[in-house]
Amino acid sequence: MKIAIAQLNPIIGDLSGNAVNILKAAETSSIQGVRLLLTPELSLCGYPPRDLLLNPNFIAKMLQRLQQLARELPQNLAVLVGTVEPNFEAELQGKKSLFNGIALLEKGKIQRIFHKHLLPTYDVFDEHRYFSAGDKSNVLILEEEGQAIKIGVTICEDLWNDEEFWGKRSYQVNPIEDLARSQVDFIVNLSASPYSVSKQNLREAMLRHCVLRYKIPIIYTNQIGGNDDLLFDGNSIAFNRNGTLICRARSFATDLRIVEFNPEKQDFLPIQISPLPDCEEAEIWSALVLGVRDYARKCGFSQAVLGLSGGIDSALVAAIASEALGSENVLGVLMPSPYSSEHSLKDAEALVDNLGINSETIAIAEAMTAYDRLLEPLFSGTEFGVAEENIQARIRGNLLMAIANKFNYLLLSTGNKSEMSVGYCTLYGDMNGGLAVISDVPKMRVFSLCRWLNREREVIPQNIIIKPPSAELKPDQKDQDSLPPYEILDEILRQFIEERYSIEEIVNSGCDRATVEKVARLVARAEFKRRQAPPGLKITDRAFGTGWRMPIASRITN
Amino acid sequence: MKIAIAQLNPIIGDLSGNAVNILKAAETSSIQGVRLLLTPELSLCGYPPRDLLLNPNFIAKMLQRLQQLARELPQNLAVLVGTVEPNFEAELQGKKSLFNGIALLEKGKIQRIFHKHLLPTYDVFDEHRYFSAGDKSNVLILEEEGQAIKIGVTICEDLWNDEEFWGKRSYQVNPIEDLARSQVDFIVNLSASPYSVSKQNLREAMLRHCVLRYKIPIIYTNQIGGNDDLLFDGNSIAFNRNGTLICRARSFATDLRIVEFNPEKQDFLPIQISPLPDCEEAEIWSALVLGVRDYARKCGFSQAVLGLSGGIDSALVAAIASEALGSENVLGVLMPSPYSSEHSLKDAEALVDNLGINSETIAIAEAMTAYDRLLEPLFSGTEFGVAEENIQARIRGNLLMAIANKFNYLLLSTGNKSEMSVGYCTLYGDMNGGLAVISDVPKMRVFSLCRWLNREREVIPQNIIIKPPSAELKPDQKDQDSLPPYEILDEILRQFIEERYSIEEIVNSGCDRATVEKVARLVARAEFKRRQAPPGLKITDRAFGTGWRMPIASRITN
Predict the structure, then answer these.
(1) Helix (H/G/I), strand (E/B), else coil: A134
(2) A282-479+526-531 architecture in CATH?
(3) Closest by alpha carbon to A6, among A239, A254, A235?
(4) How far is the C-alpha of B220 from the C-alpha of B193, rounded, in Å?
(5) What is the pLDDT of residues A414-471, one digit of tens each?
(6) In sequence order, what are the residues at sequence separation of 6 or more whose Cβ sits closer than 8 angstroms to the Cβ of residue B249?
(7) Are A8 and A40 in contact (CB under 8 A)?
(8) Most buried among A65, A225, B242, B431, by the most CB within 10 A?
(9) Terminus-to-terminus CA distance in chain A, angstroms?
(10) Looking at beta carbons, which residues of chain A come within 8 Å of B14?
(11) Residue A176: its chain B contacts at CB < 8 A?
């Protein structure tokens, strides 16, 4: 029995467009004699649909489109399509009004809808907001040439509650255990599992563990694509009964893979494995490129603009944008001020040359003078400070938005995670943009990405990598005048934000107490800025996006 | 038996400050012979603490502070304090690691912690993200003068699942029913129930229904205060066994009320009812004033700045800010451009006089010229359009932020809900601010609030109310050139956003199809702006804040 994995890239809410892509995968599969086509979780509406699910009309349209899709599909194929199903008993049972489901489409009809049992409600996931948990057995029996194959159907999180693997339970039930008891021939899992660095290693270790524990082969189908802050890396996989990886689809790209289940051997064949990126930098690079490409495309932009300061952050973002959209579709704007060093302009120009992007140079002194004159009656007698520094960043932000508005470019903001953490950035200034490309990339990782980019030839001019970081908003300013060295800052931030360690614990790990306390204070105080930041591409396990929900008006006891 | 209601205004995360306020209420209560003191839900950390709850150190500190509070409290008093409790069985059971609890503090100790049974996970609520649902009976027996009184303890949502009242169940269990079966003498409910227009009528109708259905008196204690976007109105209440309201604490103010339970009559006395605001405008006004006052205070600001355009939105916000912070602490900045009409400046000046606030005038033409000159090489040959309009708004935004940064003022943004819905506002321009004061107030309500403000004397100059709204970003511009008349727009938006009606349904209610389709398109397209908006004070049942979770990169099927 041939089973196809359609690793699809949906547009959220685009029922017709997503259905067409499912249909195309089905047609290709059908020609190749596939019996069962797998698509990702909520493949019809895209994941995550968020509050679109609260719109009854959207739900009705989804079900109509599902019925239409069932009629359009090739007749010889069974297709599992991710969709919601109304829970008609919800008001009687006191439950949520929808199920997160997988519809079995076959012979022109919706034959059945399986329900997701485990509903993630943590980090970026809000599934208890929308869904009732399924509690029925998800066994699908498919016949081919007189043979009945028993398949266990699971949806994403259903697979993530193995207390042996995790050392704890996260949910009361384990759907895999239940399916094993039903003696299914293999399990399919239809996922929309967001990317974070090295997550595929975790997924493969977990799947292998489940396969070996229950002696059941598993096929795992994942969504790919960028949807706002969330990146989906694909990497769909299948494991044989003995724990051998026999299929891996591409990373960060759509794909269609066919595996064959041999009922005699009770196993999958043949082996077809796409390699994973060969280091974390290569992986993050692909993730960010996909994130920019998809955000632009799905929002209707084909061109992007960004400010080039001559610093490393904007250099990296320019390189990512060139790869994502084509260098001819990227405009870098150099906006020197009287505080800009000579090398800034030179370094930015060298970057423009290396990347082959378009550039414009606009010296901002005249606008600075205009603001100074307008504010003179109010500011006279005060000292140059943060207000004046921010004016420069905001003039640049205003110029970039004017260009973006005029020519319908997507403005990309260039701040990194270290800056966003401690608020070393200007709201309505350098934070301006439709997408914050590297706002989940710590500064030290920005350096390592640039060094990796230069592995064969100079992409990022060497001077940009080696010079000390500076915002250049006042004479001779260096980041390290206000912040701890980035190697120390990033380590404190990792412990504080990603590991959720206390100040005491971080100090005990060997960091200077005053520095840790300062960083904790800065992180809390920058919350109002982060709340107004553009969506930022998530690459770590704890990003400042939909999974970060902090109060602003607060007095935090650390 | 005397029972006190402490209607408290916590600062999120401020364990010590909040504990001190509980202690003060306890001391006052103790002197008056109170046996039981009630405080709101999560009164120790403030509601909603959001992801502070994911920080293990914060949880440990909360429990330490709770123990200390138990020791500090007067010995003759039992106090119910809102706190979390770790669920030590969580990892075995596959549940969340915390309970939302109410600690009984008495005789220097934490005697017991009751758990919340119903965990709201909709709109602004995310309780399944943090909490396990309690499943034990919450009966508290308190003795006084040899008599044992049986009290049912419930937390906020526990009261909101009466299928008779709502016509449906929202949860599988009804804690009130369970307590009625236990034959408690009365029920206490400790809440943090956010404000929306007329919500108190709903609460009182629901409580009365429960009281009459189960023949049990209920005391309801609510939090007050503004926490970011959420406003809590207080209005704590008690109902007698026969459904008579016998106590209502103040609206939008802290309060301490004492009711007495008479074991013979099995009822509360005496009657002490604070009146509700006498119309919706009065109520909304108090809500917004509290929201500004608390956001400023809790973020450490004592002064505010805002732009005065001469229009009605900024006029209303200036009036709210004056009431909240004192007119001497409000700076209105007039920033005329060559497109500003003469009346704009005059109207704004009249407003400044009426309110007695400080003002500055900064003509922005010079900055406009500077930008025009800087952008000339790029923009030459293009027509004046949205890019140029936005530059003006962003110059004003930049000036306001410069003033806010320089003098440590809180910048208030002034956009209304109608504008925010359709994107008739400039990101990084007039949307700038730490708090969006009226971003959940539809334009027609802005008018009615201003007319109400003028009920005794002219606060908002009459011309500001009667002139046609205009952004004045190009010559002779009127809002109604680009948008439907506000009475039509607001009705469509109400149906589309608050009622979640489809385009078809709105058209069937008598609206023009082309207009409805245009509005729906504008609402979807403005999502990227709303994502970067400052927190806005929530006064409706569906605000663009923490309870609005929409994708940006999407293609929505309406």
Answers:
(1) coil
(2) 3-Layer(aba) Sandwich (3.40)
(3) A254
(4) 10
(5) 999 999 999 999 999 999 999 999 999 999 999 999 999 999 999 999 999 999 888 8
(6) B5, B7, B234, B235, B236, B237, B255, B257, B274
(7) yes
(8) A225
(9) 58
(10) 554-555, 557
(11) none
Q: Chain A residue closest to B393 (CA)?
A: A398
Domain boundaries, chain B: 2-276, 282-479+527-531, 484-525
Q: Does the beta-carbon distance from B504 to A57 stay under 8 Å?
A: yes
CA distance A427 to A442: 19
Cα B156 to Cα B214, B219, B327, distances in angstroms: 18, 12, 37
d(C-alpha B349, C-alpha B332), whole Å: 9
Q: Give A28-87 pLDDT, tens digit per residue.
A: 999 999 999 999 999 999 999 999 999 999 999 999 999 999 999 999 999 999 999 999
Give the CA distances from residue B243 to residues B205, B213, B237, in Å, rounded to whole numbers and listed in that order: 10, 9, 12
- CATH code for the domain defined by B282-479+527-531: 3.40.50.620
Please give the single-letter amino acid code of residue B152: G
pTM for the structure as a whole: 0.97
Tokens read off for B221 = 């204690």
CA B38 remoteness from chain centre: 22
Containing H/E element for A323? helix A312-325
Does A374 contact B364 at a Cβ distance shorter than 8 Å? Answer: yes
Q: What are phi and psi of B483, to 5 degrees?
A: -120, 155
Minimum CA–CA partner of A56 in chain B: B500
- Those residues whose C-beta lies under 8 Å from the C-beta of residue B278, and which sit 6 or more positions away, are none
- Measure the CA–CA gap between B232 and B8, rounded to whole angstroms: 10
CB contact under 8 A, A366 and B373: yes
Contact indicator for B412, B390 with CB cutoff of 8 Å: no
> What local confidence, expressed as pLDDT, does residue B477 receive?
84
CA–CA gap between residue B152 and residue B176 (Å, rounded): 8
Phi and psi torsions of B120, nearest 5°: -65, 130
Q: How far is A364 from chain B (nearest CA, A)?
A: 8
B60 Rama sector, left if φ>0, alpha if ψ -120 to 50, beta otherwise: alpha
The closest alpha carbon to B544, from B497, B474, B482, B488, belongs to B497
Using alpha carbons, select from A186, A177, A147, A184 the residue that is nearest to residue A267. Answer: A186
**Distance set, CA A124 to CA A205, A241, A524 (Å):** 23, 33, 20
Specify burial of residue B49 (Cβ count, 10 A radius: 0-12, 13-18, 19+): buried
Query: Which residue in the set A299, A428, A548 is minimally distant from B397, CB to CB?
Result: A428
From chain B, pick out residues whose CB is under 8 angstroms from the CB of A173. Answer: 94
Classify residue A406 by burial, with Cβ atoms within 10 Å: 0-12, 13-18, 19+: buried
Q: Which DSSP helix (H) or strand (E) runs through B480?
A: helix B479-482
CA angle, B130 then B436 then A384, to 5°? 105
Task: Count other Cβ atoms within 10 Å, centred on residue A355.
Answer: 21
Tokens linked to A39: 């698509």
Which residues of B form the catalytic set?
A: 41, 116, 156
Active-site residue, A41 included = yes
Question: In which band, very low, low, confident or very high, does the pLDDT at A476 lie, cut at 50, 70 and 90?
Answer: confident
Count of residues in chain A:
558
Distance CA B65, CA A352 (A): 57
- A286-305 as b/e, with b when 16 or more CB fall inside 10 Å? bbbbbbbbbbbbbbebebbb
The Cβ of residue B150 has, within 10 Å, a number of other Cβ atoms equal to 14
Please list the ranges in chain B whose pLDDT falls under 50: none
B270 cis-preceded (ω within 30 degrees of 0): yes
- Contacts by residues A430-433 (CB-CB < 8 Å, ≥ 24 positions apart): A430/A307, A430/A393, A430/A396, A430/A397, A431/A397, A431/A529, A431/A532, A431/A533, A431/A534, A432/A397, A432/A400, A432/A401, A432/A534, A432/B428, A433/A306, A433/A400, A433/A534
Please give the CATH number for the structural domain made up of A2-276: 3.60.110.10
User: Which chain B residue has the Cα nearest residue A500?
Assistant: B55
